[in-house]
Amino acid sequence: xPQTKPLVIVTRKLPDAVETRMMELxxxxxxxxxxxxxxxxxxxxxxxxxxxxxxxxxxxDAGLIEQAxxxxxxxxxxxxxxxxxxxxxxxxxxxxxTNTPGVLTEDTxxxxxxxxxxxxxxIVEGNALIxxxxxxxxxxxxxxxxxxxxxxxxxxxxxxxGSAVARRARGFGLSVHYHNRHRVHxxxxxxxxxxxxxxxxxxxxxxxxxxxxxxxxxxxxxxxNRRRIGLMQPHAYIVNTARGEVIDEAALTEALDEKRIxxxxxxxxxxxxxxxxxxxxxxxxxxxxxxxxxxIEGRRDMGERVIVNIRTFADAHTPPDRVVETMF
Length: 328
Ligand code: 8YV
Fold this sequence. Notes:
This protein is an alpha/beta fold. It folds into 2 domains: 7-101 and 295-327, NAD(P)-binding Rossmann-like Domain (Rossmann fold), CATH 3.40.50.720; 105-287, 3-Layer(aba) Sandwich (Rossmann fold). It is 34% helix and 13% strand. It is built from 12 helices and 12 strands. The chain has helices at residues 16-25, 39-48, 62-66, 87-92, 105-118, 123-131, 160-171, 186-192, 200-204, 226-231, 249-257, 296-314; strands spanning 7-10, 27-29, 51-53, 74-76, 96-98, 152-156, 175-179, 195-196, 209-212, 237-240, 263-266, 285-287. The strands form 2 sheets. It has a 7-stranded parallel beta sheet with strand order 8-7-6-9-10-11-12. It has a 5-stranded parallel beta sheet with strand order 2-1-3-4-5, with helices on both faces. Helix 1 (16-25) packs parallel to helix 12 (296-314). The structure holds 2-keto-D-gluconic acid. 2-keto-D-gluconic acid binds next to loops.
């Protein structure tokens, strides 16, 4: 890293406060238009920058990393997931990767709960009834959904966000079950009164609601595949606020269409920003535009993490959020 201020290229528009601070601390090039960079623009940025600040919408693959300039030593991603970056290729080129874990945990867990409530309780449908002026008044059999309290929630991925979802779920009277690469600490299991399922198939078939909270890695791509969707009970719901790639979206769409499962709440999609077109006409889904962490506070905190990571790296220290490939 040069002794002068590092050249930091930011690929998308960040909150003003974050951009202003970056301008003060670094030689910063902003993207005020917020237009996602083309591959050629990304390649040019990576040839020139000391630090690249990408987001989930930038695919930093091995081909781009290969073309990176000698100066590029840090990719300080604005976000927690790092599946848009080829970590192995970055490691081979001695480029450090950082992310922004922790600061979007609570917001994402809130949105997960919002979907867990919205789909079984038909909140979006209810709102549409009012807004379209088609509500004819209360009826004993009108807008019946399913009770949340007392149901079984199966969390796939009991990391920070999964645990935050579990804590909220306890408050709603859900019993917590989970599948994870590793069983969590017994103290956490006890606090959440959580049941561990080593075998995901077994858990899928017994839950009333499944929540996907694991990162997308080669090991979790289509973890929820056609066969596992087929194991779910007909009254069960699935919620995904993690990454679309974890679920086989085509298989899920079919299962929802054929009412083999009761419904889905999705904030993420396999081919963002595209959404399976057959999903759009279904009445048993709530579909959000990848907004789980979209709070003003969260975005500001993410920016702060990015700045801290760049600053510590520039000062020749290990940045606090250095991503180690084996973590993912
Ligand atoms: C972020 C996310 O908004 O952090 C993540 O992994 O999925 C989102 O909530 C996005 O990644 C920003 O780059």
